[in-house]
Specification:
NADH Oxidase, single chain, about 190 residues, four-stranded antiparallel β-sheet
Length: about 190
C-alpha cells in the first residue's frame, strides 16, 4: 500500500475543533459513523487491551442526552449560581449535533497502568478526529465536569469510566490556520 504523505500531512494539519453552533442540520449516516468508529478501533493499544468503548447518541438519543446534561447542571448548581443561558447552552450542544459519542475507557489494572489505557483511548479519539476531518465533518472532544454522573447515566460497569463526549456534525465553519509555536522550540537533540 502506498500512502500519500501530502494527504496525510494535510489531514493532520487541518484538524480543528469545530463546535455545535457551526453545525448544520444534515444527518450523519449510521454507515459513516460505523466507519469513523472502525478507524478508532485501529488505535495503538498496549497488551491489546483495546480499552475504548463508545456509546453513540443520535436522533431521539440526543434529546435524552441533552435532558440529562441540562438537569445535571441544574441539580449541581446552587440557585444563586444557576444561569438559564448556561442551562440552555448545555442542552443545545447535544441538540445541534448530528451525533454525540460518549468516550468510555475500560481499565485492566492487572495488565497495564490506567494512564496507558487513557493514552490508547486518546489515540482512538485522534483517529476519530482525523477521519471526520478527511470527511469534511466537524467535531470536538469535551470533558464536562459531570463525568461521574455520565458514567451512571451510561450504566457503565465498575471497570469502565466515561472520559468525555465527542460532539460531531456537518458544518459551515470557515477553515482557519492552526496556531502552533514552532516545533524547534519544543525539541531537545542528543546526538553525542
Amino acid at each position: 500500500m502506498t500512502l500519500s504523505l501530502e494527504v496525510l500531512n494535510e489531514v493532520i494539519r487541518s484538524r480543528r475543533s469545530i463546535f455545535p453552533p457551526s453545525y448544520t442540520d444534515e444527518e450523519i449516516s449510521v454507515k459513516d459513523l460505523e466507519m469513523i468508529l472502525e478507524n478508532a478501533n485501529f488505535a495503538p493499544t498496549h497488551r491489546l487491551t483495546e480499552p475504548w468503548r463508545f456509546t453513540i447518541f443520535r436522533g431521539n438519543g440526543l434529546t435524552k442526552l441533552a435532558d440529562f446534561l441540562g438537569e445535571t447542571y441544574r441539580s449541581q448548581t446552587t440557585p444563586e449560581n444557576f444561569s438559564e443561558a448556561k442551562y440552555e447552552g448545555t442542552r443545545s450542544k447535544a441538540l445541534k449535533s448530528a451525533a454525540v459519542i460518549a468516550i468510555v475507557m475500560e481499565v485492566h489494572p492487572e495488565k497495564v497502568p490506567e494512564w496507558e489505557e487513557l493514552a490508547a483511548v486518546a489515540c482512538a479519539v485522534q483517529n476519530i478526529w482525523l477521519t471526520i476531518t478527511a470527511m469534511g465533518l466537524g467535531g470536538y472532544w469535551s470533558t464536562p465536569g459531570n463525568l461521574a454522573a455520565l458514567g451512571t447515566f451510561l450504566n457503565l460497569p465498575e471497570n469502565q469510566k466515561c472520559v468525555g463526549l465527542f460532539y460531531l456534525g456537518h458544518h459551515a465553519a470557515p477553515s482557519k490556520p492552526a496556531v502552533r509555536k514552532p516545533i524547534m522550540d519544543k525539541l531537545t537533540w542528543i546526538e553525542d
